[in-house]
Every structure is written in C-alpha cells, then in structure tokens.
Amino acid sequence: MSKSSYTSIHLAKRPKSNIVPGETFESKTNNMPKASDLNDGEVLFKTLYLSLDPAMRGWLNDTRSYIPPVKIGEIMRGASVGIITASNSSNYPVGTYVTATAGWSEYVVLQEKDLQRVEIPKNGRVTDTLGVLGMTGLTAYFGLLDVGKVKAGDFVVVSGAAGATGSVVGQIAKLKGARVLGIAGSDDKAGWLKEESGFDDALNYKDKDFSKRFREATKVRG
Predict the structure, then answer these.
(1) SS3 sequence, the chain?
(2) Relative to the CA of 32, which of 75, 90, 152, 215 has its CA 20 to 30 Å away?
(3) What is the pLDDT along the chain (222 residues), one digit of tens a residue?
C-alpha cells in the first residue's frame, strides 16, 4: 500500500550549547507528492540513510560562516543517500540510487541537477557513499594526493586521525608508502588506529606526557 504522508524534521529553536530533545527540532507530517505533480526534470527522492556530521552543529548558529545557517522552520540540512521512487527525468529513472543534500526528510522532491548518481564498487555498500566514497573520503583523497602530494618515504602526521576524514588520510598515506603517525583523543582510538587502520603509530593528545612522546615520535631519523 502506498504511503499517503511522510515525516520531515525542522529547526524549531537555535540551541545555545547542546541540542535539546523536543525543543531544538520538531517533526512535521506532510502529504505525499504524486508522480503526476512532478515538473520536467524533477524526481521524488526517498531517503535511505542520513549523514550526521560535526559541521551540522555549526549550521544551527545564526552567524556568518562558509555556508548560510539553517533558518528557523527549515528542514534540517544534511547529506543523504536514497532511491528515486517517482521520476520525470530521463537521467534518473525510478530505482536509481543517488546522493543529495536532501535534509532530514523521508521524501523530497528534487531537481536532477541536485542529484549525484551512486556507483557502488564491488564489495561496497550504499552507505559508503556517505563516508569513504563521499565527502569525507574525497576530502582525504584530494587533500592528501592533489594538495599534499604524498609519496613513498614521506612522514605524515594526521590530527583528528580517528575521524571520518583523518582515518582515510592515514590509510591512503600508507598505501602510498609513507610512514604515518596519528593523533587522537583517547587510548582506545589510538589503539584502533594502529591495530585496525594500519597506522605506524598513534598518540593520545590528552596523555600527560603527550608533548614528550610527540617529540620522540617525530624525531628525524637517519
């Protein structure tokens, strides 16, 4: 049975510090758009997964930044991956998986120019498009290879190494033959970087001896 309505999440009040459940956001019930209502080039996007990123907290502040803040009453901004359930676009037929900045909404009518077709590699998952194959992974890839131009024999220090971008930076650096030191915020994270992500070494910046250990770890070796 087809749905007659869908839910969207809107910014209701700007938080002063932490998000306040039941106050910062409000949910709204909306009538489901019909395929016959779609204009040329429009599609009905069904959200499958949302990306929750640290930058989103900053988007709630009414201050000047690299991107305008989310307005009161607007659907909360965010990247998502989903599937086209109705289409008036020859480029994105029904059943196509795409990513878009569709926000926190179960369904959204979008223009085809706002969509990015998802191509999942062998052994990949659709959720990878919001991580290693998405914005954070691309930031790591182009930042390290196009800007940093890392090469075999380099020594790479990664801050925020246990995060979505930093962990990929370290792994790409290793693939390129570099020696990699990761900086993270706990012993557990440092252990994960060495044991699971292949970093040569990792340090906890909250350790009381961090300065000493960092100097030792970055000492020039012949």
Answers:
(1) CCCCEEEEEEECCCCCCCCCCCCCEEEEEEECCCHHHCCCCEEEEEEEEECCCCHHHHCCCCCCCCCCCCCCCCECCCCEEEEEEEECCCCCCCCCEEEECCCCECEEEEEHHHCEECCCCCCCCHHHHHCCCCHHHHHHHHHHHHHCCCCCCCEEEECCCCCCCHHHHHHHHHHCCCEEEEEECCHHHHHHHHHCCCCCEEEECCCCCHHHHHHHHCCCCC
(2) 90
(3) 468 999 999 999 999 999 999 999 999 999 999 999 999 999 999 999 999 888 899 999 999 999 999 999 999 999 999 999 999 999 999 999 999 999 999 999 999 999 999 988 898 899 999 988 888 899 999 999 999 999 999 999 999 999 999 999 999 999 999 999 999 999 999 999 999 999 999 999 999 999 999 999 998 665
Token digits of residue 140: 């790591």
